[in-house]
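Re: the 150-residue chain
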Amino acid sequence: MAESTPEVLVGGAVLAVAASFLFYLGQASGFTTAKSGDYPLTASFRSGEGITIGTDVRLAGVKIGTVSGMELNSQTYRADTTLMVNEGVLIPDDSAIVISSEGLLGGNFVEVFPGGSLDNFAPNDEIEDTQGAVSLITLLMKFVSGGNNE
């Protein structure tokens, strides 16, 4: 029995590391469940390119939530997106959201540009002022072609 004690300890350590890795993977991918106080908002983007479930939602560079759902609207052909916003973060109801990039090689995130309204979005409200991602390839093609389509 004394010979199997180190094997049991090593096995337990391997299981602890594996559980820690799975927890980290769930946090990083946004697979974790929403906190009880978070509230959903919806938005419809012309193009949801670059964002997926788990993508950060940021305001002034600070993470305030995550993208929790995306699906194609078969009537409008737009990407209907659900955002889970952290409890206590109030967003004015005239705010805009944009799919932004962290740079040329960075990932994308959803950026909230707050408005000046005194009223705030309620749970399940739709943010109507949206802008999809700007495609780097499209910008380069416009630059190469001189920016006009004449």
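The longest helix spans residues 5-29.
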